[in-house]
Design a protein that fits this description.
The complex is a heterotrimer of chains A (292), B (269) and C (283). Chain A is an alpha/beta fold. In chain A, 43% of the residues lie in helices and 22% in strands. A six-stranded mixed sheet of chain A has the order 6-7-8-3-9-10, sandwiched between helices. Chain C has helices at 2-36, 74-110, 112-126, 130-141, 145-172, 175-183, 187-223, 235-244, 250-278. The chains are: A alpha/beta (292), B alpha/beta (269), C mainly alpha (283).
Amino acid sequence: MTGFLSIRNLSVVLAGTPHRLLRSVSLDLPAGEVHGLVGESGAGKSMIGKAILGILPRAIEIAEGEILLDGQDLLQLPPAERRRLVGKTAALIPQDPLTALNPSRRIGPQITDRLVDILGWKRAQAEARAVELLAEVHIPDAPRVMRSYPHELSGGMRQRILIASAFAAEPKLIVADEPTTALDVTVQKQILRLIAEMQSRHGTAILFVTHDLGVVSKVCRSLSVLYGGKVVEETEVRAFFRGPKHAYSAALLAATPKYTDPDTSLTPVPAEVIAAVQAEVEAADGEWRHVR
Amino acid sequence: MSADAPLYQVRDLRLSLPDMTSKPLFGPRPRIEILKGLSFDIPKGEVVGIVGGSGSGKSTLGRTLIRLLDPSGGQVIFDGTDISHLHEDALRPMRRRFQMIFQDPMSSLNPRRTVSAIIAAPLKLQGFDRVRERAAEALDHVGLSRSFATRYPHELSGGQRQRVGIARAIATRPDFILADEIVSGLDVSSQAQVLNLLEQLVADLNLTLAFISHDLSVIRRLCTRIIVLRHGEIVENALTPELFGAPQADYTRELLDAIPLPDPDQVWI
Amino acid sequence: MLDGRSAIKRRAGLRLWLSGGWLLLIVLAAILAPWISPQDPLAQDLFAARTPPFWEAGSEPGFWLGADSLGRDVLTRILYGARIALIVAFVAGTLTCAVGAALGLIAGYFRGWADRIVSRLVDIWMAFPPVLFAILLIAVLGTGLTSIIIAIVVIDWTRFCRVVRAEAMNQGQMDYVASAQVAGMSRLRTMWAEILPNVLPTIVALLSLEMGIAVIVEAILSFVNLSISTDSPTWGGMIAEGRTSIHQAWWVLVFPLLTLFLTVLSFSQFGEGLKDRFDPVLR
């Protein structure tokens, strides 16, 4: 089955080097599915979302692969057309609600700009939609919030606004890049609940980047575990938590704390498991260099 | 001091800071109360978890315990001595006995010093003999090979940096260590390693530890007692099994319920 | 990350070499001026007045970059001018740095009343237009090398003070400063041993920049004839003279101007290059 987002053999490298940060990643995302991308820092999980949205840092470039969005290969499109397509069909919920909003502009225009610029809506129409969206994400007194500046709002409130803004143009795909990492647990719960609610209402597919397997078990239906830029396991969430197939993902799950269990000592990922998965990743690299 | 007297006795501890967001034309800034009269004991050998959300005052409380911040009222009695208003000169010789491990090892390790210089600094300042030997022993204790001594912080991984921070804290063989969110920036695997290491050190070196965290799930195994803070007040102070078994305060229950367990069958959302 | 780092390093290297090379040249010129100059800097030769540089028609041997309206050799005067420019750069730059950085460090790290006093002082200082301030000072102190140096220090210490204060404040909030306090380090020692080394790259960059600025200020004061006695050749004085005869003898203006420009540019680039080189994270 090919989803409406289909990534084929995507490799990204540090510009001008053969050092791969993503190693032949393939991924299919059916419309409306929430898929978790998990791994430790440096595993490349947020790189995938950035590659799709075309916001990779300058020093990183795509070496090969295809990113098919709605049947079109993004990497074959000229940059302007690519931006237009991505702007219409995809959106981002960023990690840090403190820096993702422009501190010197009011909230309202920051939501409506997208609608006016990309979808060509009338300003008034966009504003009406923004008020509606803010109500949808349970922000009371939307007109007042639209006139506020970001610093006047709490972190949780700002994250709600970013969620509203992500759903504003009715995208088919949202990349959520660690959207709750910067929040308190109690706020995290509300925000995850909100994302789930908005997702089922709008039927949007979400790529959910997180390091927290607990979060994955709550919001995702399927997941990919990454190590060193390679997908080591891709599976359904229920199957994964019943028993991961790959030794590395099993070790990662074992290292995740579970407060309900008083006696579990936390087990770090054993060195031999790391050595094995490292070898696996490097073997794939050897093949890759050989083919090129 | 008798052997079973608590190491710390905190009585009606208050702290307020000037409100930086308001800048009146005349007169001083209004003050915000961060800690609103906290009282509790830390018995010798206990590992106390201090838990709360952002803005609960947990880090402020921790830093007041080791007098990185000066309280505006109340007492902090460390092993029989009220240190809450002790002059820095009188405090300095006592600093050997309470040390701290910081949240962000990158910013707490001076980027221009080698690992050995970082660990040796408190030893030298406190007038220890055999500084090199003690620093090397501290590296052994945290499971880093002695070859790390000549490296710089930016050459280390996050987990290794945090170990250096721990080595520095234990080098003077303190009675008390404050650990402020020391695993929140780490991956689960390094997190598990650091927590296991800390558990080991508490037992080996006979430490009393205060472990500040926003995450209840990481501290169940490590802590013997947990203090839950909210808006600068203690909402619950209980032994760990009691707190997890039958949380008394609504806020504690709320915190526990909010933790997503790695288990799709948990009814959560 | 890795790639960005090496790119910065490469650029820093080239920048350092080019600017350092030019500065070395100027330093050598200043030291060796009496031996390498083709002429006497003060010798007037009215027969050689407005001799063009060597590649133009009518040039004369010994006047490589031409001669001014009094027949003095331009190259020789540039070489001698480097002496005064560099003395001012090094002495004024270092003194300005010492005063400004010390006050900035104290204000930024100790905060409190020390900061309030220094900051108010800086605020008041910044309200004076610098060039007018300098002219005023020279009027009070009288002309001469010492007066110029004093004027530069008095006017420009705020530049160091502001930047170093902000940087020290920044560093003061880092946890390694707290950890020094936990270790039992005294406040003064913390400032010296923990803060200063981390502010040093900024200070070095600023110092180099300040040397360039000192060269400019000296040139401006010479230009308005408030520097040293008109006999000693200075770049600013040459530019002022060259301006009057720009249509008849462009070289009298252009060569000292070019030298001044390259020297000031090199000072600022050299400082930036050093800063990158000293950064342990980039190193």
